[in-house]
Amino acid sequence: MDSIGGNSLVIKEININYVRNTLKEKETATKQQIAKATGLSIVTVSTVLQLLVKEKEVFETALISSNGGRPAREFKYNFNYAYVLTLFPYEMNGDIIIHAEVLNLSGNFVDQINLTVERVDLNSFKKIITLLLKRYKQIKSIGFGLPAFESNGKLIFSDYSELTGISITHHFNQLFDLPVIMENDVNCAILGFNKRKNIALNGTLIYLYFPDQHPPGAGISINGEVFKGKDNFAGEVASMPLGITWDKNLYESFDGFCHAVSKLIIAISSLLNPGYIVINGSFLTMEHIHAISAISKKGLPPNVAPNILLSDNFTADYQIGLSMQTLMLLEPPIKLTTNY
């Protein structure tokens, strides 16, 4: 978010955002309640509300009593004022499926599509996006989740070769004239897990994901912010020179897998010293977690080993994190600062 000193147009936009965010948080409120929450004057709040009501972003609702005074009008935020569209591919029973969801501004589900495709490419995404944009004119931003990383705006590595070397965000931004984001699947998952489990955001959290048919990946959160590194390569743990072959044979060996993951955790802990490491994989159980935790503690100094948690739902983590990132595209990119 950019910080700027502020002129009349900027201050107007900031005031609008103060009122907007207060109503999003409270859902319904009177002018007086909004003014108290924001520190804005009643006159300013009234002006902003007139604008938001005109745009149908806010609704006027019932009059309520105000301790013997004149009844006060309540205002309600319209979470269906705009929608976001998220898309990500996944594999099931040998099929490749693109899952698309339409969400309102509170992140609540509106609609979804699951399309089986021969390959994941620009045309397969375009088909779904075009259909949903025709169905929902309120869609104002698009988010892609992919097992890939971007450098200089292009996909450098992806599990889907047809997308490698392509600037997916630029392509669809130009095609549909909407803000677009592409986020790595595990980076989404770490945000979603934080949201689902309400893990403290201070400190360092690592999310290790072990897909059935591909090497593992990691998401790194430092003080609530996803850390991606200079070229978005942070988290590509399969590239670490640990002498481990991440494949089906390893995953099927309980002892072999637990020792391999423990070796990875010791390496990560020696560099980042995380408070928590979350692990997910369709084959993982709490027995794995207990064994990995015990082995890891033996390879680290006392009290240094992280708390190791099992995520039971990668899809939920992924979807929640991707929706959070896509909704953020609709947040104003400015804030007011004080100059000293």
Q: If you had to describe this structure to a student in words, what would you say it looks like?
A:
This protein is an alpha/beta fold. The protein has three domains: 77 residues, Arc Repressor Mutant, subunit A, CATH 1.10.10; 116 residues, ATPase, nucleotide binding domain (Nucleotidyltransferase, domain 5, 2-Layer Sandwich); 121 residues, ATPase, nucleotide binding domain (Nucleotidyltransferase, domain 5, 2-Layer Sandwich), CATH 3.30.420.40. The strands form five sheets. A five-stranded mixed beta sheet has the order 7-6-5-8-11, with helices on both faces. Strands 14-13-12-15-16 form a five-stranded mixed beta sheet, sandwiched between helices. Strands 2-4-3 form a three-stranded antiparallel beta sheet. Helix 1 crosses helix 2 and helix 6 crosses helix 10. The protein starts with a strand and ends with a strand. 31% of the residues are buried.
